[in-house]
């Protein structure tokens, strides 16, 4: 059968009409060297800094070094299948992570993928891990307290919503415990919590998650865990991932508390990546931009003004010091970025003062603006007593026999002040209870209680007030009026006469 020319022409014409030009230009390169979780790629001439790339085999990577003849890529998966000659394609987008309400109660890895065995996260929302911090014009000054439930912190080193308060100290001095107590204390409140674990043992993270679940705190918490066994790029991304999740809630006008535990290991992971990428090392072998590494993260913590929803992110970065050396490179960097620090001392910890907060060296640059009126009324006297006690205690070690009555009285009040601030782990106190106890101390109701019985007295007093005067506790959590002072005096007298201790 002969094929007519016009038939062929009509077929070609129909194909031309039905042709859709869905052509896209893909930036392609090839791996020329791979090792230690880093790949050097030839090509990818149009790739951008921090852009996600796709490596043959479905492995993702991130472009960090843009050099004249190659691109340095950190591998975000198992590098075992990547070899010389493997094809790499640019994606044209930066790293994004899932965000949303569905993440509450979940444990995810450094790029937001669930690792708790509870199935996929059912959210369609995602956010870039790196965004520019809110500018100063849309921020509001910190004026709302964020209660941690820890007497030593809420009374002496108050934290406000939108603040960045550094927790700094040596290994095993209770830094993580302060973060966890602050998260537990938000149970039943309006603050969403995110706990970012960087470079920790899997067992330790599992224990922390178990504690939060047991105390009912996982319902309002997201845990982002980049464990010690994870690759350095995952540890590097984890805090930015947590911050992106926090910003989703802040944009809705909600208050978020995020703990970065800890940024020392974050800096180590970044140093490892930078050295493998052959970036020039600086002080302590850290790269020159290690300050920017943390400043661009912590500056994203803010309290927005009412025109932008009034949401806030409160950051609790943790830094581990070596033998109390706060003058090392990373500690001094983070101290200069944050709005104060809670300093934990090994000597206090070993002496049995828990939490081991050195109230003299710790500081909150927001101050009493982040306290309720009632806490402000009682905390000033407590801080004064502690300061005077610290001055006198050096002289008192030579013997108290020659001291005059007022100095001896000041020393005894100081000893009771130190004791009253001791607190067990995972038992945060409501602010009303804290105010009542500190008020009793300031008014001299504990002066006749032996120092060794002060902790037992305060615990019995808490139980007594919860059982018999819960309405008074609620009242003094905000304002300490003359009437509530009279009622508190009567309640404390009643407790002392009851013989409960």
Give the topology.
Blueprint lengths: L4 H13 L10 E8 L2 E6 L7 E5 L3 E8 L4 E5 L11 E8 L1 E3 L8 E2 L17 E3 L22 H6 L9 E4 L5 H10 L6 E8 L3 H13 L6 E6 L5 H20 L3 E7 L1 H14 L13 H9 L13 E9 L8 H9 L2 E5 L1 H5 L12 E2 L8 H24 L8 H16 L10 H12 L11 H15 L1 H7 L5 H17 L3
Parallel strand pairs: 8-12, 10-14, 10-15, 11-12, 11-13, 13-14
Antiparallel strand pairs: 1-2, 1-6, 2-5, 3-4, 3-6, 4-5, 7-9, 15-16
Helix pairs in contact: 5-6, 7-8, 10-11, 10-12, 12-14
Description:
By secondary structure, the protein is an alpha/beta fold. It is 38% helix and 18% strand. The protein has an eight-stranded mixed β-sheet with strand order 8-12-11-13-14-10-15-16, sandwiched between helices. The protein has a six-stranded antiparallel barrel with strand order 1-2-5-4-3-6. A two-stranded antiparallel ribbon has the order 7-9. The longest helix has 24 residues, at 373-396. It is elongated and about 115 Å long. The mean pLDDT is 92.
């Amino acid at each position: 059968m002969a094929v007519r020319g016009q038939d062929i022409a009509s077929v070609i014409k129909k194909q031309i009409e039905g042709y859709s030009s869905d052509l896209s230009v893909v930036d392609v390169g090839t791996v020329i060297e791979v090792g230690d979780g880093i790949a050097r790629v030839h090509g990818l001439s149009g790739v951008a800094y921090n852009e996600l790339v796709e490596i043959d085999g479905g492995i993702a990577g991130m472009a960090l070094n843009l050099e004249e003849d190659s691109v340095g890529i950190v591998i975000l998966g198992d590098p075992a299948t990547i070899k010389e000659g493997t094809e790499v394609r640019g994606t044209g987008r930066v790293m994004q992570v899932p965000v949303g309400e569905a993440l509450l109660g979940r444990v995810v890895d450094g790029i937001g993928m669930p690792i708790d065995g509870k199935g996929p996260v059912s959210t369609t929302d995602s956010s870039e891990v790196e965004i520019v911090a809110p500018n100063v014009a849309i921020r509001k000054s910190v004026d709302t307290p964020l209660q941690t439930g820890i007497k030593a912190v809420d009374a002496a080193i108050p934290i406000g919503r939108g603040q960045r308060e550094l927790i700094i100290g040596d290994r095993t001095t209770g830094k993580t415990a302060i973060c966890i107590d602050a998260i537990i204390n938000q149970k039943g409140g309006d603050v969403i919590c995110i706990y970012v674990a960087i470079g920790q043992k899997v067992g330790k993270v599992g224990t922390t998650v178990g504690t939060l679940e047991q105390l009912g705190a996982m319902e309002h918490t997201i845990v982002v865990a980049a464990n010690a066994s994870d690759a350095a790029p995952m540890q590097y991304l984890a805090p930015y991932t947590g911050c992106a999740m926090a910003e989703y809630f802040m944009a809705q006008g909600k208050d978020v508390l995020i703990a970065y535990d800890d940024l020392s290991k974050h800096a180590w992971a970044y140093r490892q990546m930078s050295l493998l990428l052959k970036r020039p090392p600086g002080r302590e072998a850290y790269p020159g931009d290690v300050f920017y590494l943390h400043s661009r993260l912590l500056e994203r913590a803010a309290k927005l003004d009412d025109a932008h929803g009034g949401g806030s992110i409160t950051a609790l970065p943790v830094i581990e010091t070596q033998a109390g050396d706060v003058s090392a490179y990373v500690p001094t960097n983070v101290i200069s970025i944050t709005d104060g620090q809670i300093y934990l001392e090994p000597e206090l910890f070993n002496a049995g003062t828990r939490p081991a907060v050195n109230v003299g060296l710790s500081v909150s640059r927001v101050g009493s603006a982040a306290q309720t009126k009632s806490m402000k009324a009682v905390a000033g006297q407590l801080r004064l007593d502690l300061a005077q006690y610290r001055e006198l205690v050096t002289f008192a070690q030579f013997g108290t026999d020659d001291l005059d009555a007022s100095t001896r009285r000041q020393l005894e009040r100081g000893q009771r002040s130190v004791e009253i601030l001791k607190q067990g782990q995972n038992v945060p106190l409501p602010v009303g209870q804290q105010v009542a106890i500190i008020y009793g101390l300031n008014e001299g109701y504990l002066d006749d209680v032996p120092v060794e019985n002060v902790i037992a007295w305060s615990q019995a007093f808490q139980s007594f007030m919860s059982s018999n005067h819960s309405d008074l506790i609620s009242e003094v959590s905000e304002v300490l009026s003359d009437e509530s002072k009279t009622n508190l005096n009567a309640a404390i007298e009643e407790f002392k006469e009851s013989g409960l201790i």
